[in-house]
């Protein structure tokens, strides 16, 4: 399969080649034609001269007058070298030596010698009535300078060659410029596509590059590619979001904890050894809310708690829906005392909420941190386990409280 | 009975028509427009008269132009020849040649003169005719002494100008020397300047502003040729058909 660019190049090349061949052939035929014109040119001049001289000899048949007319004609026409008029027994020539040099047969003919073009024309009697049969009464001979006549033909040929070449060059320049534009846009489109292949590429700057395209259709194609890529990218983000977040609370789910946090964050924690605390929250008497007010109320409580947590923690903190009504919050670079402050803020806000159940909703929590509870960073599971044990203790001690030790 | 008689009549008519049909060759040696038009019309008329126009094996030859007639005079063919566009058939002795029938291409001077007088209601006078010495013997055949006075010249009609002034009418005879463009224009100019009336039988001289020229009726000429193809009249040369003005 040929690429469009290659196909276009081949077609343009063929077009330019065709035009050049056309110019060559047309000029070849034109040069052939110019020979005919050259012949006609000398023939027509000779006819006019013959007619004039014949008329002069008929009106006033004086040898000196005829010769003077011939001399003037030779002087006035630069390509003319000599003339000879023979009528019956009379013969007039200029210059006189021509008489000896040339003879004419009966037929009309144009001869080309190396240096001269010789035209022989038969002269017929001119009658007022066409009913009288015309008879040949003599002949006329004109000798032209071959170089001069050829020069006219050469100029004519060169003129036509230059004009046609000029048009071919103009056409070629136009075609090449169009080809360059198309090629440039093709290259841009290609680099566009190459850039889009990079998964980490930020697409927004590419939209700004659309103005660089010269051809509207290419810009439209590039625009379409960018839009489609952006659409795919946003759909990917959405799918990722759906996979890593909990749809009810808007918090991260356990997938995130396993796939992202464990993979990306834990190695960093191990390397930097910064303090990290976790808080495991569990809504008190959540089962009774579900049983008495239905699952919708339970969902409402969870949704609101998720919102409160998101509003209350830092951007760097990671809240995760850990179980049914259990929520884990990871506080990087924080000790459990600092994490406790955030947990208390959450409790205050939650208790202020009125869920229409006749009492405030509370939660119990267990907190643990590195380096207080574990000596080696990286053991997130260990921390969660400790926090879970403390949560259990908090529940046993009467709920709605936070246990750090 | 009537039906049988009609059938027989038709049969006889058809047989007689087919026996009269001839194979005619039309040869035109004059490449001038009127000759070509005439040739075309003659071909049409021959077909209308149920003659076959052929190129060889002809029983009748229609010859247009002097060269065609001259060529035929040198052959021993016994077929019938009908000619026209021959200025001087008497010069070629065609009036006595067996199987040669023709139509004149210019009217006899006497007829032209009479038509000229009739048209302008002029009284009869002697007509001066400038003529070259070469054409004098032929002119004497065509120009009757009772009407025309021949004034010969050797090189140019200018030689006759002095003599022409004695007459009122000048006739232009189809003399090649006289009809040379320069000679004719010189003569006409002289006549106009001296109020001499110039007339001729050559129809295409009208463009030189002559006082009178006969106009050939080419349709009638074509009909006359077809007539000669079909008939052998006693007079072997028919007069030139002219339009009445």
Question: Your description of this structure?
Answer:
The complex is a heterodimer of chains A (405) and B (245). Chain A has 405 residues and is an alpha+beta fold. In chain A, 59% of the residues lie in helices and 16% in strands. Chain A has three domains: 4-153, Beta-Lactamase (2-Layer Sandwich); 198-242; 249-403, Alpha-Beta Plaits (2-Layer Sandwich), CATH 3.30.70. In chain A, strands 2-1-5-4-3 form a five-stranded antiparallel beta sheet. In chain A, strand 3 (109-112) and strand 4 (116-124) form a beta hairpin. In chain A, helix 8 (286-312) packs across helix 9 (336-352). The relative contact order of chain A is 0.07. Chain B is of the alpha/beta class. Chain B has two domains: 20-105 and 217-238, Response regulator (Rossmann fold), CATH 3.40.50.2300; 109-213, Rossmann fold (3-Layer(aba) Sandwich), CATH 3.40.50. Helix content of chain B is 38%, strand content 19%. Chain B has eight helices and eleven strands. In chain B, helix 2 (33-48) packs across helix 8 (218-230). Residues 15-19 of chain B have low confidence and may be disordered.
CATH hierarchy, class of the largest domain in chain B: Alpha Beta
How many strands in all of chain A?
10
Q: How many DSSP-defined strands of chain B?
A: 11
- Count of individual domains of chain B: 2
Shape of chain B: elongated
Mean pLDDT of chain B: 88
Class of the largest domain in chain A, according to the CATH hierarchy?
Answer: Alpha Beta
Which H/E pattern describes the elements of chain B?
A: HEHEEHEEHEHEHEHEEHE
Spans of at least 5 consecutive residues with low confidence of chain B: 15-19
What structural class results from the helix and strand content of chain A?
A: alpha+beta
Quaternary assembly: heterodimer
Major sheet of chain A: order of its strands? 2-1-5-4-3
Q: What's the CATH architecture name of the largest domain in chain A? A: 2-Layer Sandwich
């Amino acid at each position: 399969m040929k690429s469009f660019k290659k196909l276009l190049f081949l077609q343009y090349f063929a077009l330019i080649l065709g035009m050049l061949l056309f110019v060559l052939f047309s000029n070849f035929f034109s040069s052939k034609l110019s020979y005919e014109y050259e012949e006609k040119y000398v023939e027509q001049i000779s006819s006019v001269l013959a007619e004039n001289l014949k008329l002069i000899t008929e009106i006033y048949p004086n040898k000196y007058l005829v010769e003077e007319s011939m001399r003037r004609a030779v002087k006035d026409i630069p390509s003319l070298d000599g003339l000879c008029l023979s009528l019956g027994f009379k013969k007039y020539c200029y210059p006189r030596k021509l008489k000896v040099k040339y003879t004419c047969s009966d037929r009309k003919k144009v001869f080309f010698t190396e240096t001269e073009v010789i035209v022989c024309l038969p002269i017929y009697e001119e009658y007022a009535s066409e009913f009288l049969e015309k008879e040949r009464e003599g002949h006329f001979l004109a000798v032209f300078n071959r170089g001069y006549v050829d020069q006219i033909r050469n100029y004519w040929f060169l003129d036509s060659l230059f004009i046609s070449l000029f048009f071919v060059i103009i056409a070629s320049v136009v075609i090449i410029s169009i080809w360059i534009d198309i090629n440039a846009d093709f290259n841009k489109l290609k680099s566009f596509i190459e850039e889009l292949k990079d998964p980490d590429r930020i697409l927004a700057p590419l939209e700004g590059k659309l103005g660089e395209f010269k051809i509207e259709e290419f810009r439209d194609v590039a625009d379409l590619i960018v839009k489609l890529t952006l659409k795919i990218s946003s759909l990917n983000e959405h799918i990722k979001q759906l996979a890593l977040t909990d749809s009810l609370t808007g918090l991260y789910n356990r997938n995130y904890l396993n796939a992202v946090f464990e993979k990306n964050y834990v190695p960093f924690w191990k390397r930097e050894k910064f303090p990290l605390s976790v808080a495991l929250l569990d809504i008190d008497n959540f089962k009774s809310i579900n049983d008495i007010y239905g699952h919708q109320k339970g969902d409402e409580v969870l949704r609101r708690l998720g919102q409160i947590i998101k509003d209350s923690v830092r951007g760097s903190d990671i809240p995760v829906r850990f179980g049914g009504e259990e929520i884990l919050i990871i506080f990087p670079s924080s000790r459990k005392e600092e994490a406790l402050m955030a947990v208390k803020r959450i409790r205050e806000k939650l208790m202020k909420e009125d869920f229409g159940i006749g009492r405030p909703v509370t939660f119990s929590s267990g907190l643990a941190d590195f380096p207080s509870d574990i000596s080696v960073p990286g053991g997130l599971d260990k921390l969660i386990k400790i926090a879970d044990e403390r949560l259990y203790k908090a529940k046993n001690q009467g709920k709605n409280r936070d246990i750090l030790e | 009975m009537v039906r049988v008689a009609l059938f027989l009549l038709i049969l006889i008519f058809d047989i007689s028509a087919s026996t009269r049909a001839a194979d005619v060759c039309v040869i035109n040696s004059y490449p001038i427009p009127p000759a070509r038009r005439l040739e075309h019309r003659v071909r049409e008329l021959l077909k209308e008269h149920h003659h076959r126009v052929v190129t060889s094996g002809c029983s009748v030859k229609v010859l247009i132009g002097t060269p065609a007639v001259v060529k035929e005079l040198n052959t021993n063919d016994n077929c019938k020849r009908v000619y026209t566009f021959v200025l001087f058939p008497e010069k070629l002795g065609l009036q006595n040649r067996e199987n040669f029938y023709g139509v004149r291409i210019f009217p006899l001077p006497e007829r032209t003169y009479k038509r000229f007088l009739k048209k302008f209601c002029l009284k009869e006078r002697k007509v001066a005719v400038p003529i070259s010495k070469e054409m004098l013997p032929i002119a004497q055949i065509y120009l009757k002494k009772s009407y025309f006075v021949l004034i010969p010249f050797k090189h140019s009609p200018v030689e006759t100008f002095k003599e022409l002034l004695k007459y009122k009418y000048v006739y232009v005879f189809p003399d090649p020397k006289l009809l040379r463009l320069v000679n004719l224009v010189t003569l006409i100019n002289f006549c106009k300047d001296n109020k001499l009336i110039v007339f001729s039988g050559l129809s295409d001289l009208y463009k030189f502003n002559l006082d009178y020229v006969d106009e050939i009726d080419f349709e009638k000429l074509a009909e006359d040729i077809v007539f000669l193809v079909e008939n052998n009249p006693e007079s072997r040369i028919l007069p030139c058909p002219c339009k009445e003005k």
